[in-house]
Amino acid sequence: MRSAGIAVVAALWLVAACGGDEPRRTAQPAQYGYAVVNTYPHDPQAFTQGLIYRDGFLFESSGLYGSSSLRRVRLETGEVVAEHRVPEQYFAEGLADWGGRLIQLTWQSGRGFVYDIETFDLLHTFEYPGDGWGLTHDGARLILSDGTSSLRLLDPATYEETGRLQVLDGGAPVSGLNELEFVKGDIYANVWPTEEIVIIEPSGKVKGRVSLKGLLGAAEGAAPGNLPNGIAYDSGGDRLFVTGKLWPSLFEIRLRPRADQAP
Hints:
The chain is globular, with a radius of gyration of 21 Å.
């Protein structure tokens, strides 16, 4: 009887471990398209690498060697109302705000710049290893992308790395993570070189994919390779903004489930 009892317990454990009668399945990310809510002018000379919305303005990091800059932009008109030119040896990348400061990455120089958010005065610089691509924060940590499938977590006071978050979709790493924005508890990331945004849970799991295909057509002047890059969120107005490298327009969009999404 004892051996039979052990067999029954073992069988029950196997059923529980498999989630009942069927093997456990990995949930697939939700698939989204978009609806355009508003369209705004955007400087077609801005090679957008970082974008945030704060205090009624867009703040933008524009890249390329010799023409990188930090900008304050009026949303409604696209007017650049303040600009700081980055030294020509640096290729500006991701941008985030923290405690009255703006933090700007550079691509392969391993140097970040920290500015006063009001005056754009350079307060100090900091160093980090490897590439800098996108930057955001979750209210406690800075989150840095470097083009791989791993997000670095940084102390916002010291800029020292405190950990890493591996981004996975169904167990597979998602590389090419670029511009970042923290939206309602999740990380939104442009995926280079695609027209997709992935929505990442705090665990690193991809919970959604957003196709921006067709958002800016050839008729509007987007050259090949000028992909979507730039995500900003207005938490007060619950508005999501996206643009791209050298795009003449910036869009407020609303996500909507794709009609071809599997049930």
